[in-house]
Amino acid sequence: MVSARSEEEVEDTSVEKAFEGKVVPRWEKQITVRAMVVSLVLAVLFTFIVMKLNLTTGIIPSLNISAGLLGFFFVQIWTSVLAKMGMLMQPFTRQENTVIQTCVVASSGIAFSGIPLFFLHAFFQ
User: How much is the pTM?
Assistant: First the structure.
């Protein structure tokens, strides 16, 4: 028999409850150098993947999840190495991961939508 959970129990298990007391940093602090470096590396990688898939199959999968996970993975490695060296200035935040994911998905979308322009240019050469 399935028991109905009360609203109080659901509130206690919320992920947002863990971040309740933390202040969201200003947008200037969310766009960091490490976020831009990781975004650039992943954007180049994803651009090649998107171009290859678009030229071979004509479709691309949603890259949001993979961009978010890879961005999280690379920045976690970066911050753990800096923490071991004693040079960590700012901890990794959820907002920083969102910036990385947004940059990577936007650049791969530009690569996907920009390829037909290359086709048109090639047809008239």
Answer: 0.71
Residues 46, 49, 55, 60, Cα dihedral to 10°: -70
Q: How many domains does the chain have?
A: 1
DSSP H/E element including 111: helix 94-123
Range of the domain at 87: 39-55+64-106+114-125
Q: Write out pLDDT tens, residues 3-41.
A: 555 555 555 567 777 777 778 778 777 788 888 999 999
Task: Count other C-beta atoms under 10 Å from residue 121's C-beta.
Answer: 9
Distances (CA, A) of 94 to 68, 78, 120: 10, 15, 40
Task: Find, among 119, 100, 104, the residue nearest to 62 by Cα.
Answer: 104
Q: Could you tell me if residue 87 is inside a domain?
A: yes
